[in-house]
Amino acid sequence: MRSSVICSFSVVTMFVCAVLLGGCGSGNKEGQTFPTAQATVIDNANCTNACHAASKDLSGVLVDEWNASVHKKVGVECQGCHGPGSLHWGLGPIPFPNPDAALICSNCHSRNALGAPHYNSISSAAYPAQYVSSQNVGKCTRCHEPHDNTLLPQNTDWAGSAHAAFTDRPFTEDDFKTLNTCNRCHTTTGFVNFLQSGNLNQPAWGSPSDNTKELIDCNACHVDYSWQRRDGITSLNPVGVKFPYPVTFGNTTTNILYVLPPVGESNLCCSCHSFRKSGRSAILTKVTNGTSFSSVRQHYLGAAGTLYRLAGYEFLPHTPNYDNFPFFSHADIGILATASNGDDISSLQFSDGSLRGPCVGCHLWGDPPSHTLDPAVISPPGSINGTVTAIPANPLVCSLCHAGKFAMTPASLTAEKQLYRDRLAALAGTLQTKLGIFYNPDIDPYFFTDSTSLVPFTLWQTAATTLGGGATANQVIGAAFNLQLCFKEPGGYVHNDKYTGDLIYDSLDLLDNGRVDGSYVNSVIFPAGRP
What's the CA gap between 332 and 262, in Å, rounded? Predict the structure, then answer.
C-alpha cells in the first residue's frame, strides 16, 4: 500500500514538474511555445470563478470589468477572445494572450462592421482621417479598456471634439505624417515622438503609400487604458515647454526660444496650442517691400501664447505696457489653491496634489472629465462669429471666480465675443481703407492687394511711408500679424482679453497716424481707451 502511494505521488510530481517546466520554458506565463491546435473550450467559470477571480489588468479586476461589459451582455466569454483554454490552467498555453495584438478584435469589429470613422475610404486628395490608422492596427486598447469594452462618456465626448474631426482641414488638408515639423501636432505618432524627444521638432515619420491619416487619439495624451496622462515635462525639458521660432536676418537664420512656465499636465496642451511663431520674431525679422507674410505667420489656435503674453507683436515694451489686469487669474487655474484675486480655486487641482494647469482645469471640466474640450457651447462650433448658447463648465469652474455682478451667462459671454469680433473687424477695415491691405483669413498668405485674394500684399515699406509718423515696415506687418493672431485665436477674449485688447488697440493706434501714442479713439469698441 505504501509503495503504491509513493508511486502515485511520484507520477503526479513528474506531471506537475513537466507542466511547470513547460510553462517556464516559454519565457512567459502564458507558455506561447506550446501547440494549441488541440485545445478545446472549457467552462467559462474556470476563468471567472477560479483562476482569474482576483486577477487585475491596468484598470481593475478582470472579472468585475467583464461582468459590466457589453461582451458579457451579448454572450462573448473569455475564450471568445483568448481562444480555447483546455491546455491553459494558468501555466500552459492559451492561443491568444493578447487578442488585440493578434487582431482577434477585428473578427467581429471589422472594417465592414465598424465603417467610418474607424475606417474611411480613400476617395480624393483631401481624404478623411480615421480612428484605425496604420499605427493603430492591433492597438484597440489605446482607446478601449479590453475587459469592459463598454463605450465610455470620454469616448463619445472625444468623438465629437475637434481632436477627432476626421473630415476637418487640420487632418485632411495635407498628408501630415509625411511632413517635417507639422506631424508633431497633426498626428498622434508625431506628437508622442515630440514629447519623448524633449520637445524637439520631428521629421516626417510616415510614407505617402500609407493611405491612412491620423487624428489626435487617446494615446496622444494617455499612456494606456489606465488613462494615466503622459508627462508633458521631460527630463530634457524640466522648466516648461520651449518653442523654437526661426528668425531670418538677411541670409542668417537663428532660433529664439520662448519658454512657457511649467503648468503641470497642461504642458501637453501647450505643446501645440501656443502658435508656431511669436510677434517678437516679426519684430526681429528684416521686413521690406517683397517680404511675404508667410515668413512671419504664426499658425492657429495658440491659446497659451495669448494666456502667457508671449505671442503678439508688441509695439511697446512688454512690461508694464502689456501687463495683465491685477485681478487676472486665468494663469493660476489648476496651479494655485487660491487665485491672485483671492478666490478659492483649490478644486481645480488634482486630489493627489498634481497640477492640472489652466488648459486641463477649464477644458476638462466635470467628473468624469468632459473630453469635448469645450467649456462653452458655441453655435456654429469653433466659429469666431458664433453665439454662446451654454456654459457647461460654469458651475464647476467659471463660477469659482465669476460670481455676483461678474457672473458669466451665455448672453454676457456672447457680448464679449461680439466686442472681440468688432475690434478685429475695425482692424481689418482700417488696414484695407488706409493701406489697401485686404485680409482673407481662409487663404494663405492671408493679406492681399484686393478682394480677389489673388495677389499677396508685400509692399510693407511703401505702406509704412504712406502712414508717415515714423512708422516702419516691421510695424505695419506687426499690425497685420496681430490681426491674424487674434482672428486665429477665437477664444482670445476669454483666455486673456487684456492682452489681446492691447494688441488690437496698439495696431489701430499705429494705423491712426503712424505712431503708437494713444491717439486712436473709438468709443464703441474701446470706450475707456486702451485696455
Answer: 12
C-alpha to C-alpha distance for 36 and 42, rounded to whole angstroms: 14
Rg (C-alpha) for the chain, rounded Å, is 29
Element (DSSP H or E) covering residue 287: none
Could you read off the pLDDT of 441-490 as tens digits, one per residue?
Answer: 999 999 999 999 999 999 999 999 999 999 999 999 999 999 999 999 99
Distances (CA, A) of 521 to 195, 329, 468, 508, 530: 46, 29, 19, 9, 9
Domain ranges of the chain: 242-513
Contact 388, 377 (CB under 8 A): yes
In the chain, the amino acid numbered 482 is N
Residue pair 304/260 in contact (Cβ under 8 Å)? The answer is yes
Percent of the chain scored above 90 by pLDDT?
A: 66
Q: Which residues of 97-128 are buried (b: 16+ CB within 10 A; e: fewer)?
A: bebbebebbbeeeeeeeeeebbbbeeeeeebb
Query: Is the CB of residue 394 less than 8 Å from the CB of residue 401?
Result: no
Confirm if 81 and 144 have CB atoms less than 8 A apart. no
114 backbone dihedrals φ, ψ, rounded to 5°: -90, -45
Backbone angles phi, psi at 44, to 5 degrees: -60, -25
Q: The cell 495658440 sits on which residue?
A: 302
pLDDT in tens, 222-262: 999 999 888 765 333 434 555 554 444 443 455 566 678 88
Positive or negative CA dihedral for 513, 517, 521, 522?
A: positive
C-alpha cell at position 39: 485545445
Grid coordinates representing 20?
A: 511547470
Q: Which pTM was predicted?
A: 0.87
Distances, alpha carbon 130 to alpha carbons 33, 112, 153, in Å: 35, 14, 20
Contacts for 106 with CB less than 8 Å, ≥ 6 apart: none
Closest CA to 392 of 348, 362, 420: 362
